[in-house]
Amino acid sequence: MSNSYDPESWEREYWIFEEERWDDLVELRKEEAKGTEYGDGMFEEVADALVLAKRYDEALEILNTIHKLKPLETSVHNLILTILKETSKKESDFNWIQTPEILRLDENLFQFCLSILKKKRKTNRSLTVIREALTIKNIFMDFTFKELEEWMRKDDRLMFIDSKQNMFSQIEILKK
Known about the structure:
The chain has eight helices and five strands. By secondary structure, it is α+β, with helices and mostly antiparallel strands. It has two domains: 9-100, Serine Threonine Protein Phosphatase 5, Tetratricopeptide repeat (Alpha Horseshoe); 103-175. A three-stranded antiparallel sheet has the order 2-5-4. The chain is globular and about 55 Å long.
């Protein structure tokens, strides 16, 4: 495969994702990264594929190099933190140049969620809106969205209204 632009290359990657053939994704991305430099984003893609393939040591080696070049890059931080979490290691087990911000289920996160809920709208805000706001922040979340929902439901400062509209279950959240 040449490094020239291939308008149909997404089809190969789509098929690999559908079949969950992560080692094939690693090889495809390594091939695409040949001849490029570490700072241009291609090796981040390789590292991401290595994480999906659970080849954490290889991914961490690449990410360590990228982190030294781009210590503020949140996508690199997020991949490193994913590896640390998957391998049951702590954030302090990595030699950070710039320590990343991590969202945890704590009062700061709750206040952020409240700020999203307070936005002036005629309709109630849903958990989907909170998910979108958290995703846009692009900060590593040390929880799943299911854990977030369960945590928020336990808080008596919020009231959840479960409804079913157009075949989709919607959860609306009201501030008490």
